[in-house]
Design goal:
The chain is 4% helix and 56% strand. It has 481 residues and is mainly beta. Among the domains are: 4-103 and 170-196, no CATH class; 106-161; 309-335 and 393-479, Immunoglobulin-like (Sandwich). Strand 2 and strand 3 (48-57) form a beta hairpin.
């Protein structure tokens, strides 16, 4: 019998409860985690994971058997399931599939016994006695109502004892298949599917040296498994990137994950990074166990000797150039502090960095590390510059004053500015003044050299001596029609 043509079913029928009708003529076979030979978990940034579960099973030879594949994720997307016999693909076929997720709990169990007799056990701990009463459960809606003899009980203090578990309730999420098999040997069944409620993120710690010139970067990944099952001794991969998701995204993601990838770089510790389509995969080079409802942290990188650049920046406002601020003297503006470094091999880095939060620390005079700020980074390829906003400078004061303003008509203005910067630090500094100027503009005069950063931006580099003051003055004409 050749089942390969019917094997790639992609699930024309997905039901909520068990199979109906007389499709099965024999008792169902059951597969649990005891049959598992390998499990691979690929976690994406977007609250999904691809699971590949390989189990060894010896199946009955039949044209219509039932296999209950248990211990799958509670939040599985059934339409993404793909199953194959790795060693004998022509001898096995899945003809129909159901996903059973009507998991049992106390309320659901009692629902199944409404109108039926159950046993109530009443224990008296003071007298050491037990009394069993046969009762009919009349209702399980906002509490139980029982009929005992000719009396109606609104609730009962005893324990409810049920004769058996109803057949259509299960303890664990289960895939149930109608299958055909003509082999007497054991199959290596590989089952792949997507599940939600599983995600990961990256976090970093950047330790800055005394001179703010070099740093050490430690990276951690945090995997959060709330998918509803455990993955024991799993091969773990993490995908960084913005994966587009449509309503029927499962098949697309599965096909992408099956495609090839080229090795790019190796991290210093446990992960190997690979280029993958337009994303990046971080492959853990050992196995790990992801328990359900567990948050696990794994070291991603540990790099030192990273050259850092500290910058002080005064950021302007485009509205300054279209209105008169005469009379509003000495407008205080913050001086923001940034740390920059390049993600390059020359700087002891060069591995694509997943998006996350970088927290910065520096040792105080007694050698104790103190938190100095944090910033979030996007997915950052190699050889790109990272600029981290750390905070605002305490010992640097900046004030701006509009020295002149003229409305030249036809949406043309001309204004003159004075920006005073006072440095109370014990070292010389350079402050960058960034002015966003929209429209057509021209610097008429300036006390300092300037750079045209873009069509709508100009910057000034202002050196300021320790315990000193520097004054930047410039005049700009703006046409904003």
């Amino acid at each position: 019998m050749n089942f390969k043509r019917v094997f790639m079913f992609m699930l024309g029928i997905v039901a909520v409860t068990g199979f109906t009708g007389s499709a099965f003529s024999q008792e169902a076979q059951v597969s649990t985690l005891e049959d598992q030979k390998n499990v691979e978990v690929t976690v994406y940034n977007s609250n999904i994971a691809l699971i590949k579960d390989t189990r060894e099973l010896k199946l009955a030879t039949t044209e219509a058997g039932e296999l209950r594949f248990m211990d799958v994720a509670q939040y599985i997307d059934p339409v993404t399931v793909h199953v194959e016999s790795v060693n004998m693909p022509d001898s096995f076929a899945v003809l129909e599939q159901n996903y059973e997720y009507d998991l049992m709990n106390a309320s659901k169990l009692l629902d199944k016994y409404v109108g039926k007799e159950i046993t109530l056990l009443d224990r008296n701990p003071y007298q050491g006695t037990e009394t069993k009463v046969t009762a009919t459960l009349l209702s399980n809606n906002n509490g139980q109502i029982y009929k005992v003899g000719d009396e109606i009980y609104l609730g009962h203090p005893g324990y409810q004892i049920l004769p058996k578990i109803p057949e259509n309730l299960i303890a664990k999420p289960t895939l149930t298949w109608l299958f055909a098999n003509d082999s007497t040997s054991a199959h290596q069944l590989k089952v792949s599917y997507l599940t939600s409620n599983m995600t990961w993120k990256a976090d970093y710690v950047l330790t800055v040296d005394d001179a703010d010139k070099n740093g050490a970067l430690n990276g951690w990944v945090t995997v959060d498994n709330k998918s509803g099952t455990e993955y024991t001794n799993a091969q773990l991969k993490l995908v960084a990137g913005e994966v587009n998701r449509a309503r029927d995204e499962g098949r697309v993601l599965y096909d992408m994950e099956m495609s090839g990838s080229a090795m790019m770089a190796k991290s210093a510790e446990q992960f190997v990074e690979q280029s993958f389509f337009e994303y990046h995969i971080y492959d853990l080079q050992r196995r790990t166990t992801l328990k359900n409802n567990q948050t696990k942290q794994v070291s991603l990188l540990n790099k030192s000797g990273i050259p850092l650049t500290k910058k002080f920046i005064v950021q302007g406002n485009q509205n300054y150039f279209y209105n008169s601020y005469m009379g509003q003297n000495n407008i205080k503006v913050p001086v923001e502090v940034f740390i920059e470094f390049k993600n390059s091999k020359e700087n002891s880095l060069g591995m694509p960095l997943p998006a996350g939060v970088i927290r910065l620390y520096k040792a105080d005079s007694k050698g104790s590390l103190q938190f100095i700020g944090e910033d979030r980074i996007d997915h950052t390829p190699k050889d790109e510059l990272l600029r981290l906003k750390v905070g605002k400078a305490f010992d640097i004061v900046a004030e701006r004053k509009q020295m002149d303003y003229q409305n030249l008509g036809s949406y043309v203005t001309e204004s003159e500015w004075e920006i005073k910067i006072r440095n109370h630090k014990e070292e010389d500094i350079v402050v960058t003044v960034l002015e966003p100027v929209h429209g057509e503009w021209r610097i008429m005069k300036s006390s300092h050299t300037y750079n045209k950063e873009s069509a709508h931006g100009v910057s000034f580099e202002v050196p300021v001596a320790k315990d000193g003051e520097a004054v930047l003055t410039y005049r700009v004409r703006v046409s904003y029609r």
